[in-house]
Specification:
The protein is an alpha+beta fold. The chain is 32% helix and 26% strand. The strands form 5 sheets. Strands 9, 12, 15, 16, 17, 18 and 19 form a 7-stranded mixed beta sheet that branches. A hairpin with a 2-residue loop joins strand 13 and strand 14. The longest helix has 18 residues. It is globular, with a radius of gyration of 26 Å. About 6% of the residues have low confidence.
């Protein structure tokens, strides 16, 4: 019996997707829930699983082609669930040899047994996944396997002699480009700067990290302090947590903080929902979970939906100072940067302190200079004396 493989609903705002890679060829067999095709939207990449065991009869949408939500990707033939009868003439020894051969072939690699991040790196470097050896017992290729293959001294470059390479932009990269340009063309973006003495936060991390890790099974990072400081500052300066829609200003009474995460496919911003209700441990745990999902390509639309304000940490890459672009339709984004020891004046003394430059980019149409500066000063004060954040008063 034939069935249709349908593009699933991927979110309220998603109307179409692009077929980025078929993981099965026509005639290939598959099991129920096995990934058949990878599709890409302007936010995430997802694998469409088989609704039942069977084989791929027909491909309706080729790779690189757009398809609407609910559209037909391909035609499947449902399996009756019967295993083929083995040949009577096959000896036990021959059967064992065939099984060993099949295992070796399966362990080598196949596109269907690879993570999205592994396929992305392979595509960008013109590597065939069939040439990559898996480090896992199930034969699945992960990101580390591809990176290891790239660094292998025996690997021959497929680009030798080529001076240029033309690769079509992914759906996600196209959308990132479009939205960044729209933000610059639409919002009146201005950036204000300040610097934060991180001594007190670093002292708390050093003295409490072991106890914190024992309780929550995650390390105490800087991001939880910044999320807490941002939420308190947003509560005091609500315009920074608002957005413009048509001729109206929408003030948000909830605090869904986006955390910008860099991946192989580009920048994504998963959301910490109701961050004002989360403890330090919950914030750190959720950030690690969202970051891992982002890098593995397993973020869902729920993870990316909403957001009232964004925090971007360029310091993890060594950035000293930058002017982040707001994530529309939000009106503000806070840029964190590298912590460096610098000479500063404290009570008329020149001392060495761990300092971080911070930048607030904001939409000047809704946020005045006084509010933007006040917001950033409040963040600075809360982090330089984090007792209010820790005690919750």
């Amino acid at each position: 019996m034939s069935t249709e493989l349908i593009v699933p609903t991927l979110g309220e705002s998603i109307t179409e997707a692009t077929v980025s890679k078929w993981l099965k060829n026509i005639g290939d067999n598959f099991e129920a829930d096995e990934p058949l095709v990878e599709i890409e939207t302007d936010k995430i990449t997802v694998e469409v699983p088989a609704p039942h065991a069977g084989s791929l009869k027909e491909i309706k949408v080729s790779e690189g082609t757009d398809v609407e939500i609910g559209g037909i990707l391909g035609i499947l033939v449902e399996s009756k669930g019967k295993k083929p009868t083995p040949k009577i003439t096959e000896t036990k020894e021959e059967k064992v040899k065939e099984e060993v051969k099949a295992v070796k072939i399966e362990t080598k690699s196949s596109p269907a047994k690879s993570s999205p991040s592994a396929r992305k790196i392979a595509e960008e470097n013109n590597i065939k996944l069939e040439d990559v050896t898996s480090s896992r017992s199930d034969g699945r290729i992960n990101k580390e396997d591809v990176v290891s293959h790239l660094s292998s001294p025996n690997k021959t470059s497929t680009n030798k002699g080529e001076r240029e390479e033309v690769i079509k932009m992914s759906k996600i990269r196209q959308t990132i480009s479009k939205r960044l340009k729209e933000a610059q063309n639409t919002a009146a973006i201005l950036t204000t700067f300040n610097e934060i003495n991180m001594s007190k936060v670093m002292e708390i991390r050093k003295s409490k990290n072991q106890e914190f890790q024992s309780r929550y099974e995650v390390k105490l990072g800087f991001m939880s302090f910044f999320v807490k400081a941002v939420v308190k500052s947003l509560q005091e300066y609500p315009a920074v947590n608002a957005e413009i829609k048509d001729e109206n200003i929408i003030y948000k009474n909830h605090f869904d903080i986006g955390i910008a995460v860099g991946t192989e496919k580009g920048l994504v911003v998963p959301i910490l929902k109701d961050a004002d209700q989360l403890s330090f441990g919950e914030i750190e745990t959720k950030i690690i979970d969202l970051s891992t999902k982002a890098k593995d390509g397993t973020l869902t639309m729920e993870d990316l939906t909403g957001g009232t304000f964004t925090i971007s940490n360029g310091g993890v890459y060594g950035s000293m100072l930058s002017t982040p672009i707001i994530n529309r339709p939000q009106s503000g984004i806070l840029g964190m940067h590298n912590i460096q020891k610098r000479a500063v004046v404290v009570n008329d003394e020149i001392l060495i302190r761990p300092m971080m430059y911070v930048a607030l980019s904001y939409d000047h149409r809704i946020i005045d200079g006084k509010e933007s500066v006040g917001f950033l000063v409040k963040v600075k004060e809360l982090l330089e004396d984090p007792s209010e954040l820790v005690l919750g008063i």
